[in-house]
Design a protein that fits this description.
By secondary structure, chain A is mainly α. Chain A has one domain. Chain A is 80% helix and 1% strand. Chain A contains 15 helices and two strands. The radius of gyration of chain A is 19 Å and the shape is globular. Chain A starts with a helix and ends with a helix. Chain B is an alpha/beta fold. Chain B has one domain: Rossmann fold. In chain B, helix 4 crosses helix 5. The longest helix of chain B has 17 residues. Classes of the chains: A mainly alpha, B alpha/beta. Chains A and B meet through helix 8 and helix 9 of A and helix 2, helix 3 and helix 5 of B.
């Protein structure tokens, strides 16, 4: 057991080191796919930190993603990236902290709808601001090369994965999971539920802010409808549902599954892609509610 | 020494007075019983002490500090733990994890290793060791009631509020529960407030009993005094019987 506690993070670091190589080995198409895969891993891991652990299902992560993208674009060529990207994360975390105070008072479907509504609200505020400024989409000149973005995204995915792994095994994570199981019982046992939920919400927003910044640089174009698209939030939930949301391997498996499905179907039968994704989702909700990773774990325990 | 002092506690739900000007003290080390029919205000009283609801009026002094209106987690860290009449286990977690969470947080706020060791000991004391790896939701009712006590105990309280931990148990289980409560009272230097419908159990455990009726405190005394009190008999059985 003591061995396993050190071996697993070492395994993730080793895998990440190995994944620094593709820029030297594959062409821009596959590197782009790799970037996308890593971005979904980073996003889904950070979502698990809040929603997987506490059961507060957020449909608001597109807001953090969009805000991070927006700040990166606004400060492009005036701030260096090593300032603007962390600032994008910090902005997202700050917004989560401010919104979290009232928002985390509601639970269940109300929380889902509220986070979704807030993300839409912020989207339209940004659209309004851009319209007032007379901007209809912003082009970014001189964005960093794909290789750089890939390595930065790899680092983010690694950090997010280690964060999930660590929190899952920490006192903080135990408190969050107690909140998921029964919030009244948790606070009766001394779990500082208000503080923990708020901190989880802010931590969960930080990585998506940076991912949004990197993806804005990747497309070299910013347009609020696209940057704040709720599809980002939906996709994160789909990944967590398919892979499992209780521990670090879940989001990785879910993101892999989604990217493979996309690659297989997107070009050959795009009209089938959403239909099949929908069927897969229904299947998972009905028959594998704890995701691929949860099912694998249960299989292991049973034998 | 007085550990808990309730003074003029009142609580309304709309037009209904759930509690009206209730005052009593609990000395350190005592086991005090709370008795009363359904709707008398017993569980509301626990909710006010543990911080799940704010009293409309009055003060709740614990170890000299007024704690009325503080959050439940803050009150627990001060040293008050409660069990729920309707059990609230962390269902998908193992029994062991349930108890460990109490030890990780609460007034003890242990590091992981100490918490796991404390949890193991408490599981043994409350006859839960054999079920430690099962999901808490799969325990029998008696088991879940013991788990409520085990988790509360793991937070290292000085005052333990037990809300009908014997309701729904068989006579054998009740006898065992009485022994368990006596043992933890002794071993952990606890002060215990206990709500119980199983009357003979309350008579055996408590040194003093407070009787609530429609939100009012109508009597307070030793079990022997309460058993023969005409006011209590009238409240329970009606005027003719008294």
């Amino acid at each position: 057991m003591i061995g396993a506690r050190k071996i697993t993070p070492m395994f993730y670091v080793a895998a990440a080191l190995l994944l620094t190589l593709p820029p030297f080995l594959v062409g821009p198409y596959w590197l782009g796919v790799g970037l996308l895969l890593l971005s979904w891993i980073a996003l889904a891991q950070s979502w698990v930190l809040l929603s997987g652990m506490t059961g507060y299902i957020s449909l608001g992560h597109a807001m953090f993603y969009g805000l991070g993208g927006y700040l990166t674009v606004l400060t492009w060529q005036s701030w260096p990236l090593w300032i603007s990207l962390p600032a994008a994360g910090a902005l997202a975390a700050f917004v989560a902290l401010v919104l979290g105070w009232p928002v985390l008072r509601v639970r269940g479907p109300y929380f889902v709808i509220l986070t979704y509504g807030l993300a839409e609200l912020v989207k339209f505020v940004v659209i309004d601001i851009e319209a007032k400024l007379g901007k209809f989409g912003r082009l970014l000149m001189g964005a960093p090369p794909l290789e750089t973005l890939y390595w930065l995204m790899l680092a983010l995915a690694l950090i997010a994965t280690l964060a999930t792994w660590y929190v899952r095994r920490s006192r903080f994570g135990a408190g969050l999971r107690a909140i998921r199981e029964n919030e009244e019982a948790a606070e009766t046992l001394g779990v500082p539920v208000v503080r923990f939920k708020l901190f989880a919400f802010a931590a969960s927003a930080f990585i998506p802010g940076i991912v949004g910044g990197l993806m804005a640089l990747r497309s070299a174009y910013f347009e609020p409808f696209q940057a704040f698209s709720p599809v980002t939030s939906f996709t994160i939930v789909v990944i967590a549902l398919i892979g499992g949301s209780d521990d670090a391997p879940g989001p990785i498996l879910g993101a892999l599954f989604l990217i493979v499905l996309q690659e297989l179907l997107w070009t050959s039968a795009p009209e089938l892609y959403l239909i099949i994704l929908g069927l897969v989702l229904i299947g998972f909700v009905l028959f594998v509610p704890d995701g691929v990773h949860g099912r694998l774990l249960r299989g292991k325990r049973a034998t | 020494m007085t550990l808990l002092a309730l003074n003029g506690i009142g609580k309304r739900f709309g037009g209904l007075k759930a509690l009206d000007d209730v005052s009593f003290d609990v000395a350190s080390g005592e086991i005090v019983g709370i008795m009363g029919a359904n709707g008398a205000g017993k569980t509301t009283l626990f909710s006010l002490i543990a911080g799940h609801q704010k009293p409309g009026s009055g003060t709740i002094r614990f170890d000299g500090t007024d704690i009325a209106g503080q959050r439940p987690d803050a009150i627990n860290r001060r040293g008050i733990a409660r069990t729920f009449q309707i059990v609230r286990p962390f269902r998908t977690m193992s029994v062991r994890e349930n108890v460990t969470i109490g030890a990780l947080f609460g007034a003890g706020a242990d590091d992981t290793q100490t918490a796991e060791r404390d949890a193991e000991r408490i599981l043994g004391e409350l006859a839960l060791a054999a079920d430690a790896d099962r999901p808490a939701g799969s325990l029998t009712l008696a088991g879940q009631k013991r788990l409520e006590m085990a988790r509360a105990l793991a937070t290292r309280p000085r005052l333990l509020l037990l809300d009908e931990v014997m309701a729904g148990l068989t006579p054998t289980e009740v006898a065992a529960a009485i022994e368990t409560i006596r043992a933890i009272h002794r071993n952990y230097n606890l002060t215990i407030l206990v709500i119980e419908h199983v009357m003979h159990a309350l008579m055996q455990l408590a040194v003093r009993i407070v009787v609530l009726h429609h939100g009012l405190k109508i009597a307070e005394g030793t079990p022997a005094e309460i058993a023969v009190s005409p006011i209590v008999q009238e409240a329970y059985l009606g005027k003719d019987a008294a």
